Amino acid sequence: MIFSFGPTSKLKINDDVLEKFRTYRQLESRDTEAGGVLMGRFIEGSDDIILDLITEPTEKDRRERCFFKKHLETHQELVDKIWEESEGTCNYVGEWHTHPEKHPSPSFHDRREWKKVLKKTQCESSFLFFFIIGTESIGAWVGNRKTVKINKLEVWNP
Fold this sequence. Notes:
Number of helices: 3
Structural class: alpha+beta
Strand order of the largest sheet: 10-9-8-7-3-4-2-1-11
Strand content: 35-45%
Number of strands: 11
Distance between the termini: 12 Å
């Protein structure tokens, strides 16, 4: 799956990541939200990014039917480990979580949290990405760290 952002930039999602997203869909009434961090590579000589890995929910995360809060320290340890093991090529590029709805859209709480992430995160990218995994589709948004504006991403159709 490939999304376009900016005039010529693309975000490609690795098939393994898509498969992991699918495993966390809230298909049953008792399923709780899940979430984590997006990790990817910046493609040299372009503005393109490949989303390679995600952190998955941990025991310390708070998971409810319609709420997810990741345990910051635990996910940061995972991010640091992935970054070190990749020799600095796999970087933090955003956040993901699930919603118990067919075609997800961000709640007021989601947008407020995403703006905090855009303002406070220290990373290499000018853009951060936010994914919400619904029961039938995946919603994707990009946030500009300079303007703190968030826009919905569209699937790239060449």
